[in-house]
Predict the structure of Nudix hydrolase 2.
Amino acid sequence: MSASTNSTPMNEQVLQDYKLLDAINDRYGGVVVEVTEPLESTLFTSMLRASIARWRQQGKKGVWIKLPIQHANLVDPAVKEGFWYHHAEPNYLMLCYWIPEGTHTLPANASHRVCIGAFVMNEKREVLVVQENRGRFRGTGLWKFPTGVVDEGEDICTAAVREVKEETAVDTKFIEVLAFRQSHKAFFDKSDIFFLCLLEPLSSEIQIQETEIEAAKWMPFKEYASQPFVQKHELLKYSVDICLAKKDGKYSGFSPVPTSSAFSDENNYMYFNTRDLEG
Amino acid sequence: MSASTNSTPMNEQVLQDYKLLDAINDRYGGVVVEVTEPLESTLFTSMLRASIARWRQQGKKGVWIKLPIQHANLVDPAVKEGFWYHHAEPNYLMLCYWIPEGTHTLPANASHRVCIGAFVMNEKREVLVVQENRGRFRGTGLWKFPTGVVDEGEDICTAAVREVKEETAVDTKFIEVLAFRQSHKAFFDKSDIFFLCLLEPLSSEIQIQETEIEAAKWMPFKEYASQPFVQKHELLKYSVDICLAKKDGKYSGFSPVPTSSAFSDENNYMYFNTRDLEG
């Protein structure tokens, strides 16, 4: 029997006549396909149908197709076969499909961006502050803590040290998370968690990152706190109170503790109030 | 002069001959297009080129195109014009483009999923535990805290109360975040933050959510803590220690405090050690 392109259920002979998509098994009873070579869309559709028929026979559940952006011609054919979008990064789109009857149990997409703000104070009670040359505070004259986005796969404590180093060239040691704030609709419908972090300076000389930072300096904490913008916003006012309480030894945040995970072999950081637990 | 479909720079007359894409301005000097009607791909390409030429004249920067999944035929044409992927949800793909010279300043995509675990203990020192009927703990006999995923746009404190209610029908009041753990490669390259939350029970009768939960009960805390799986994993052992210290009045986590934001008109929750700040 020769290969045919209709979409009726395929028998074993027909299945064998089609080239199937290369797939690897995931640990949840599903398969992952990564398209790495250009494919003409009609051929892709035939291969996809034959592959799904095969995976159905094998009792597979979720199907993932990772489509690099250079193969964007295959998005529409995959959607026509019933795939939907799971997530996207600049250079690829992840589509998914659920073979069994009933609702799928595929994991939810990432919903939050994670950011850090770095409170770095020296022994003269001067705080490390910057003025940004782009973004919403450009040209406002506001002196603010160094801030930045935590990359996927990056620890919060690593991101804080990295951002301070990148923006000001100051070396620091991460101490603890003092507070965090969750906000919504940070961009489109996504949410945002901002971690206020305490870092200890290990060096003092400042050299600014010119693409992002207009100016940076060590500023007396009182002067930072008295800026009208800081006084006006509860988030920043609370941050000032927390930082002061911390510096006076009255406040305990969450320190990172490396822990083994129940869910993978990797070590991860757990953040908690270690002073209270030990005390 | 009549409309032409070549891609050379367009003069004012040619621009006027093309229908432009409907777009709304964003607050960062960019535009957002949401495709709501079916469009043939060649026509879309012509409209997109004419629109970009217009936006360039207007000094626009970022361009966003939100493509509902039923218009997946337009993904490939947009990519061919230089768009790349920003993020995707099951029913749409967001593409973006940067008009000015130089590197773009478009916001990063969401990188983290946010989950909660709920520690709910009654006055008899019994803790609310469940057995799941799907996922990795299915059939293991492990009794665990109710857990779940925080939706985008949902407060952590709201999600914790919702998950306990959904899984067990028990009403609770959110008290504080006791600890959190960040882990990586939770799914593909995305990361995960898990917040361990303390909740106070407001009711005791259990009714399970049968799609997800096999069984639920109030279990003596000692019995929960002595499960071999809990003893074996540092994350869970620390959680037990923290929960016990909390119940004995020796531990302070982060409580949610509603705050106005410097960045939007919405109220958001800031979480910090309110006991230390007041004390």
